[in-house]
Predict the structure.
Amino acid sequence: MTRYDLALIGFGGVNRALAELIAGRGDALEAELGFALRVVAITDLRAGSLVRTDGDGIDLAPLLAVAPGELDFSAMDGGDAEPRNEWVIREVPADIVAEATFTNPMDGEPALSHVRWAIEAGKHVCTTNKGPVALHCRSLRELARRHGVCFEFEGTVMSGTPVLRTARRMFGGLAVTGFEGVLNGTSNYVLGRLESGLSFADAVAEAQALGYAEADPTADIEGYDVQLKVMILANEVLGAGLTRADVPCTGISALTAEDVRRAAAEGLRWKLVGSAARRPDGTVEARVAPVALPDGHPLAGVTGPVNTVAFHTDLLGTVTVGGPGAGRVETAYALLSDVIGIHEQSGRAVAGAKSLQEAHRG
Amino acid sequence: MTRYDLALIGFGGVNRALAELIAGRGDALEAELGFALRVVAITDLRAGSLVRTDGDGIDLAPLLAVAPGELDFSAMDGGDAEPRNEWVIREVPADIVAEATFTNPMDGEPALSHVRWAIEAGKHVCTTNKGPVALHCRSLRELARRHGVCFEFEGTVMSGTPVLRTARRMFGGLAVTGFEGVLNGTSNYVLGRLESGLSFADAVAEAQALGYAEADPTADIEGYDVQLKVMILANEVLGAGLTRADVPCTGISALTAEDVRRAAAEGLRWKLVGSAARRPDGTVEARVAPVALPDGHPLAGVTGPVNTVAFHTDLLGTVTVGGPGAGRVETAYALLSDVIGIHEQSGRAVAGAKSLQEAHRG
């Protein structure tokens, strides 16, 4: 049985939910997927670091019994009060580094360094962190190629909804000419509540109370979160090399509740749309802006916190993929789907190696 | 370069569109996908059969220049006035048989025999034919396993929209608990036109004029087409062993235009929904019936001829995949995606064989 040793970098909601999945259904996953998962290291800004590479690795159940804010690795066997990210990523023997620290849209740090260190150490990386992927995907992919490891990031767009992997693996032989997406659940929820008659401030407050919006909702409301996702999708699906400056961004605060209600009365629904399209000269044009969509548009019926991306293709016309845009379990599943992707890619190498062994034996 | 030799069984709209793709962009596909396609046999009820296994195989351009109804293989080199399906499928050396004859919902014939003959002859099969897949998927899959070949049928549900392949390859580690789908474009188009105020008869006539509905629209309107797709999806995604008798079926003719308009005024949209769900005891319950969906339901915004399936899962909640439900080019793409799937699956064997050769050489 193949086993992958994981190092979890950042132990907030997402990696904690991944640990819960491994602790709670690791055996079932092993039976279904054909590989076992063992967590050998965890680092966290507040809790410090914990390393156990012997036996079953880190015993997750006791950690998960402690409330997130109260976790302290320093007194544990193999623990330290410091996160020691660089040392853990570079030196602790692990097969896969799962990076789930906070997104920094300016320079991608410190996640960018975490990803680089892991790849340089010959470890596969999966991350839910939009920063390094939006800003440095091409160079990180090239670095991964040189080191013969996988760099996976399904969770950076629409949490565990298989958007990037669908575009990468289900569209062979098609030309994708562009896409439009409702890629932020908070802003979409707010727009729906404006249609229902709430004021902008009340709608945002409600989204915060429901856990959709952060304490500071700026990135959601002003479109900056969508901007990063458009960069990731455009760079991945259309091969564009977009920077933030290439993606003009207008958020929904440009709209009034009255605008939204009046449009709804005319059968139009305002959505915050992130889009990109290939120009005739081959370059890619992208933007984030509110758009009043008519009934029948593939994104018009996307309501509440749901996200959907509509890919425009030559042979199939428009193909949509919809699902949760956020959520800790949903995003943890993205990491699990990345691990499955890593297993499938390295599985071929394993199959080749097995034939080799059999040939040597024969 | 790997090359796959194809035998096209049935040369109606779909396989003709596949031939157009191969003739028109075979080189581009070869560069992108890493394999070449050569058509070595075509059979058709009206045109007869044509076999060319030398050189570049069948020269497609002259065939495609002839109007579909006027094609006659009998006078051509390698041609015969008879389709000779069994002989062609069993005896002509080909790697993949692309079966695209008409769907027979009663016993699946003659497509069922076509698929069996191909598998028994050690050939991979891809088909867009719902009959054999809905009625005999389990036994055909088992037959294919025993003969070491692939049995692919993406085009049986939502043409080339990657629904079956998404469920099979993108949901690892998830439990799919059920699905609901708008799986027939004709009936969905008709329902939309009833909302706009048309009578039932006028809406059906319009769908026929637009090419969405067949001359006899019974299978679309009465839900029988959706019933087959529900069986395929439920058997494939939920491991159910459903027969037609297990899927009660009510079509949209049970609705009046007035029902649809009144619901629309209340914000409800009637859709013909094919659904299945796992019961607590593990068995699967399925049905086809019109349902009045509220705004916010993932299928409520599916308009016109578009199809969408909403998969219900444990970790991700609802994930939707939408796209074209029919169309000759769209369905031909399904066959191409099946060939890509066959290539990926046999690619591993090839990688193994290559390692073997290298080991022998080394």
